[in-house]
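Support case: user asked for a sample of complex input and structure output to validate their parser. Sending the pair below.
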Amino acid sequence: MVERRPLLDIFTHLLLLLSALALLLPVWLAFVAATQDLAGVSRIPINWLPGPHLWENLQEAWTRGGFATRFTTSLIVAVGVTLGKIVLAMLAAFAIVFFQWRARMLVFWAIFLTLMLPLEVRIVPTYAVAANALRPFQAILDATGLTALVQMLTGIEISLEWRMLNTPAGLILPLIATATGTFLYRQFFLTIPEELVEAAKMDGAGPLRFLRDVLVPLSRTTMAALATILFVYAWNQYLWPLLVTTEPERATVMVQLSRMVPRGDALPQWNIVMAGVLLAMLPPLAIVVLMQRWFVRGLVQTEK
Amino acid sequence: MAAIAFRKARKTYGANTAIHDVDLELPEGAFVVILGPSGCGKSTLLRMIAGLEEISGGDLLIHGTRMNEREPKDRGCAMVFQNYALYPHMTVAENIAYPLKVAGLPKAERQARVAEVAAALELSALLERRPGQLSGGQRQRVAMGRAMVRRPKVFLYDEPLSNLDAKLRVQMRLELRRLHEQLGATSVLVTHDQQEAMTLADHMVVMHAGRVEQVGSPREIYERPATLFVAGFIGAPAMNLLPAELVQGGRAVRIAGGPVLPLPGRARHGSAAVTLGIRPEHVQPGEIAAQVEMVEDLGSSALVHARLGEGLAMAFHTAAEAAPARGGRAGLHLPAERLHLFDPVTGRRLALERETQPALDYAPL
Amino acid sequence: MERRATFRTPLLPWLLVLPQLLIIFVFFYWPTGEAFVWAFTLEQPWGGGRAWVGWQNFAEIFSSVHYWHSVRISIVYALGTSLLAIGSALLLALFVDREVKGSRHWRIALIWPYAIAAPAIGMIFRFVFDPRAGVFSMLNQMMPGLWDPSLNGTHAMLMLILAGAWQLVAYNFVFFLAGLQSIPRGLTEAAAMDGAGPLRRMRDIQVPLLAPTFFFLLVINLTDSFTNSFGLVHIMTDGGPARSTDLMVFKIYADGFKGLDYSGAAAQSIILMLLVVLLTFVQFRFVERKMHYR
């Protein structure tokens, strides 16, 4: 469109530039702080330009926070959640979209309902389950009288226990128990032309073969989109890891961050803390910047 | 033995019946075209042969074996879909080889078969491309190749040419026919395009509202439409259908309030009311007065839309140079041998009893 | 969603959904159900399991001044964060959409904050607004007490809202931009032919057509502010000073895990659940339907 609005164009650029800077400002200040020594970071007024101490602060934060093990834990959690969710979501969506079976709609709604309540609102009982993941089954056995029956017959008391606190499973599994991915996959599967399924049937491919040969290759973009947002989501989790890693040694990167500031009135060593923050936010930031296209796509698709 | 036979085959979706007790035999080696307007159940019938649609009642026999419960892959049929249904992430070669791969054929044999099919379809240069990089006609040929590679006894085509542009469609039509001759298998093609049906078919099945209206060669169906529906559906422009009544004991027919036309035989019918049909291309110049409303110049000929005395619409062909002017008058002659009579209630064709053998060189009514 | 091309293998679909069903049973349905049981029962202090107490837990919560305070400030926080984030995102998206050249670069310049975790940005904002070390330290030196979120509840809440909005801007921006780009070009071109300038077009064409996106984002932002604020609060203010940032999620955590009042925390969870369900319902009932006229 031919439209000359030089003033508006300048204003547009100016507004965008200022907004981008405003968004960047806090992170810039954090970066500057991470490059100062303790005196530099406590200076009044504050420094606006970086100093020479970035590397030593990063090293200090890395060792003080025990980030080597923290990063490993966070990486296991992020990768575990990403893979677990993608696989479970794909299988479930496949069953819901491509099969004709009686309980299909029931199962669909059972999974879909989990979209409604985020983990945060059912955090207390979820913690109880993480303390013993077999608790629901034990409760069912007790309630149905099976425990008593077995005890009476055999003298063995059934006591199911799987303690998940401080384990990767405890960190990962509750984060997988939502339907985001399933829903995204369902939407994608619904766009697969029905004739493709029929062609596969005519060619003699059964359901699993169809999944492997056609759906998995075709869903690569969906998978990439989902993987980026899931990785960021899992890496950035805070409340759940904080609860479930009762031993400091098992903490994730994010939980470790909160421990780098002294409780109470003492002034934190902001240069070291900010260096730790930079380290902690680097992996998801890298994912978003490098995989921007997938990330945006995943973001828009999971909510629709 | 018939290649494919339906015995009282039915298809219902809940309370809706898509196919009503169809009895049909499709001869082996023939090119069968199932023709009908959209929603008439023709695709459903094809998909019942393929095994993509369950059969609600009756039997389906392929080469004499009952196939109702067999899976698609075990029926010896291959199918070409309307939008081709090529696997978008596989190359042309992989697409064609896929049925063989699923069947577990060794790689060397797969490659040989693909090469053979590709050569027959002139696809050899395109084997490494993906469907997205192909033109419509090329995709069509890949879909053909994927069907051919299994060497099936029966080819099923679901409106295979409808996504192509007009010129390519004519070309692919010839190609389909050529392949059919070459492969010697039975082909069953579904279409709503009567021109396509007339040119391709050895054996034509006209369907309407879930029922088979008429089965026969294209010529038979054109010349002796068995029902009002077939009469109106086959032929472009459509046959003129006029209300009329039998007079002179069934030896002649009077167009409502208009001229009396002699019949080449005697029609026996319970009531006098009939529907009279004549194709526009069979109307000749003559004595019946008509008011010309519009003239469509078709190049080689002209199609004239006119009204008879009582306001009944009548379309007819004339030579382009002999076309009357719009608003002018024309005289028409409706040859007795070209008239079709139908029962207006049941829509069935009325037969004529011959009293004298007419000496005509075209097919008698 | 009825498809005609489906497989009919009776057992296989069950095997395929089994892992997901197991996980959501153990970690979703069971805990949600247990929250309801706990909300209506009390653990007996001397053992002997849980005793049914009816609505008592709820009655206690509703008669608690602290709880109502928490609800009030949660609403303030949610509305403040959502409106701030949606407003600025809308403005940015309108201009980025206009700026065709280089708009890809603007996009990345504006969406990256979404990748920053709540604890990280919380920590950064805590540093930036630190009365002794941050940007306000100079002002505080001149006029002591001018800015101190660790003593002044309003300051703390303001800081929290800013951090929350900062986090959400990027997300909203992505959706507004997608919404704008799905408006048929023909519409803006028609408006241009009718003589409407770019600002006029934003007001008359683009903003009204974005209404569905706006409502959608409002619901999502509100839900997110109600449920996802824990990280920010825990890192930045720890609910203080003097409960001034004691948001609902944080209170559940504090009462449940610090106060060990499981029943009270469970009852609070139920209330929060109902709130979230209500918001989701509003979204489905009203927003989803409006989305269709696009």
